Amino acid sequence: MVDPVLVAKAAVTLLSNEKTRKGIGWAIAAILSPFIVVVALLCSLGSGAANHNVSAAQLCFQDGPLPDNTPAEYRVCIEQMRADFAELDDAISAIEAMIEDDSSLDPIRVKAVFFSLYFGGETPLISQFANCFATSEIRTRTVTETDEEGNEIEVEQTYTVAIPIKDMATVYANIAASLGAETTEEQKSNADSVYSLIKYGYPGAAEGGGFEGSDVPYVGADGFCSPVGANWRNIVTSEFGGRIDPITGQRDGHNGMDLAVPMGTPVRAALPGTVRVAAYDSSYGYYVTIGHENGLVTLYAHNSRLLVTPGQVVQAGDVVSLSGSTGRSTGPHLHFEVRINGQRTNPRYYLP
């Protein structure tokens, strides 16, 4: 049997090399912790091709037999997670039965957080965990009943309604209060990445991930750097200005430009400057703002991971974050804004 510790060390060594990491693929390099990386590498042994690699997350979410060469200790972890997911489905169904309006829980989101917190660890009370994703409200309604004399009468009845929680900060606070599990930023980022992988298929299975030109800075004659490489014109999914909001379906203003990039794509500083904000916001998700000269500020939102801190000085082309789908987002992309003296302006005016 292969020694898991030695394999883990080998995996970390491999992933520290940029060329090798790209060869393995972002599905492993961008979202998986060292322990899960070991599982993914061992499960893909003998596949002979990058697109045959399967991550531990995918193995847990899918049905069917595990690869024959999955080591016994990892097989136990994956099978336990599958069993926990089955219990989660029952708990989610119980909550859904108490929801009145058109809202609902997202089973993939619930399972992605559970996976990030408990893969290979001790399983909490499943129903208690699921309840962290919803709150309850006592409501009243009028129902018709039959009294002792056989007459139909209308009476007021109280009942409990479940309301899904959309704000993940509240969910994580509930998990901490109910289960005593403080979620780290790394676990939150991993949960977001696993969610995107299962729901949208990112990180992609194509070898190298990303797209042509995303791995090197692309700087124009005026020194302004594209945050996602030379191919940015071909991946614009939403322009600056008016648009149909992808979540509400209503026409609304759009303060920046959306660029569709796979999970884990390097996001680069557009100009030299100082990081002002590197934090989480319910709308922007994990985002970075950088202050530049002459009142210019750039913003990079919906990241899976932040690689800079407030006050840090960066140069044009420095990697400040990894792209993701956090916050108010429907899939992996970078929301990019340019502001002049506080006024948002079209990023196309500046991109090379």
- Mean of all residue-level pLDDT scores: 78
Overall geometric form: globular
Number of helices: 10
Give the % helix.
25-40%
Q: Please give the radius of gyration in angstroms.
A: 23 Å
Largest sheet: 10 strands, antiparallel
- Ranges with pLDDT <50 over ≥5 residues? 1-54, 202-209
Q: For the terminal residues, how far apart are their CA atoms?
A: 53 Å
Following the backbone from N to C, one meets helices and strands in this order, namely HHHHHHHHEEHHEEEEEEEEEEEEEE
Task: Give the tags.
352 residues, alpha+beta, Glucose Permease (Domain IIA), 2 domains, ten-stranded antiparallel sheet, two-stranded antiparallel ribbon, 26% strand, disordered N terminus
Describe this protein's structure:
The protein has 352 residues and is α+β, with helices and mostly antiparallel strands. It has 2 domains: 4-127 and 168-200, no CATH class; 218-349, Glucose Permease (Domain IIA), CATH 2.70.70. It is built from 10 helices and 16 strands. A hairpin with a 6-residue loop joins strand 6 (241-244) and strand 7 (251-254). Helix 6 (72-96) runs antiparallel to helix 7 (107-118). The model is unreliable at 1-54 and 202-209 (pLDDT under 50).
